Amino acid sequence: MKKNLHFLFTLIIAGIFYSSNVKAQAPYCAASYTLNGCGPASTNDYIESFTFATLSNVLSGCTPAPYYVNFLPTGNLTTTVIQGATYTLTVTGNATKQNGFGVWIDFNRNNSLTDAGELVYFTPTILGAGVTYTANVTIPTNALSGLTRLRVRSNWNNSSGVFALASACGTIGDWGEIEDYTIQIGTNAGPAQPPIANFYAPDTVWINSPATLINTSSFQSRVFWDLPNENPLLTGYNRQAGYIDTARFFNNFTYTFTSPGLKLVKLLAVSDVKRDSLRDSISKFIYVDTPSQAPKADF
Fold this sequence. Notes:
mainly beta
């Protein structure tokens, strides 16, 4: 009997603790689309990649009807941000379609995303298919600490209008996708962190085929790429200390290698914080291979 009472008491305490920490998990306003952004005719109007601070959901694909997904706050699908600090946000659509985006954060944790100041990003002008849009988001000093909701929406070509504060909710009569995340807002930044460089690159690519390099660094304000012995610079680009100025590459970089062999790729992450020379740059190799026979179209 004592053992059962102890077990019951433990469950009650655990329930009290859990309920006091899941305010961000309460239901938020519904959001959906009437048209299929995933297909069947390959409309491809969805959120391909989203990053915010250390949250990184890259190449996530499309969520079927109702085109909504709420990711659990685990691993790379969540992050901790600090009141008063500024963090980089990136969002990318499918490479074949032009999409606009909106991002909201429930700073006052009242289960609403439509309070003043909670629309933290919207795409004012569509720049093209597959473009990575980048913004800096400052967490208000009066934001409530704890778990809270972050929502991302896409819409083909901004055809239903530029995202506004109220656009976090409701049905859009168009193509698109919604992704919800749970993030942690903290109150004490502690010492600022120097940037830590990292990126994703395929191990092997075919010659004359585009290779996409995806920045996954932490605590950076900008990144710089370098491909020694290659010349990927376009008109208007320049090099800084041997690295490519990626202001126009945003955070990711696509390059087509025209010769086979082992290729070195380097990334430098920078911020206003004193650098950590052991971790703010990284180098990886990509092997560029030549197909043994000409490719044949098939599906």
